[in-house]
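Have a think about this chain, tokens included, and walk me through the fold.
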Amino acid sequence: MRDERVLQGTAVQIVKGMQDIAFGVERLSLGEYVDWVVANALRFESVALRVQGETDEEKAASLVDEMLRTGLATRK
């Protein structure tokens, strides 16, 4: 999951950018993609992301916050 790519913008733009470069997730909604990232972070990185929110926007913001909190992402 970790690489040196730099994504910027709103949380939704960042998560959509992540989805654009991920393999096999093009048919997932943004909310489904967030759930997919959470599952894969636990499966492959042993990192539990505590994503919360009801809307896609809230879930995207929570995902970005959690990725920063756990060190899966950094601010540049």
User: Anything to note?
Assistant: The chain has one domain: 11-70. The first helix runs from residue 11 to 21. DSSP finds three helices and no strands in the chain.
